[in-house]
Amino acid sequence: MPAPRFTTAAEEGPAVADDEIPSDPQPILKRSDEETAEARAFALEAATLAHDRRCEDVICFDVRGQSALTDFVVVATGTSDRQMRTVAAEFQQLGRDRGFERYGGEEDKLTTWVVADFVGVVVHLFEPETRAHYDLEMLWGDAPTLDIPGAEASGPLKPYPGDG
């Protein structure tokens, strides 16, 4: 499986022993209640977009108090290279529209994993085998999940761009 190639400056800091890692990570940047609410709303919009574009197993984790780097993590599975590239571009446009500029991100050459870092929200879009390999659900398993609007609805999904 390909390793992620994107890291933030904070992640590239000095290595520490496991016993030196704080059990209650402090945020690198303190966000106001308003900024946190905006990040939460954006995370839910990104998760809804992934669901509406037929991504599978979409989960939105609230990792406040568990991550020093972000507040919300969205994880979804794409079903094709084309879908993953299209949805990744739509995440970026949604971020621009909502005032969340993409801090960084990466996709591997085979498009098995796309990462979009919007600071308060990090979005991971995987193909199924890569998602199983990295198992972010295990990493964030103790974090609460947010209900994704429309994900429980049994109505028809929005058409995927390009479907005729």
From TrEMBL:
Keywords: Cytoplasm, Repressor, Translation regulation
Keyword ATP-binding part of the UniProt annotation: no
GO molecular function: ribosomal large subunit binding
One CC-aspect GO term: cytoplasm
Entry's localization field: Cytoplasm
SUPFAM superfamilies assigned: Nucleotidyltransferase
GO biological process entries: cytosolic ribosome assembly; negative regulation of ribosome biogenesis; negative regulation of translation
Top-rank taxon: Bacteria
InterPro entries: Iojap/RsfS/C7orf30 (IPR004394), NT_sf (IPR043519)
Keyword Zinc listed: no
Region feature Disordered, mapped onto this chain: 1-34
Family per similarity comment: Belongs to the Iojap/RsfS family.
Subunit composition and interactions: Interacts with ribosomal protein uL14 (rplN).
HAMAP family the record matches: Iojap_RsfS (MF_01477)
Cited function: Functions as a ribosomal silencing factor. Interacts with ribosomal protein uL14 (rplN), blocking formation of intersubunit bridge B8. Prevents association of the 30S and 50S ribosomal subunits and the formation of functional ribosomes, thus repressing translation.
Protein name per its UniProtKB record: Ribosomal silencing factor RsfS
Species the sequence originates in: Phycisphaera mikurensis (strain NBRC 102666 / KCTC 22515 / FYK2301M01)
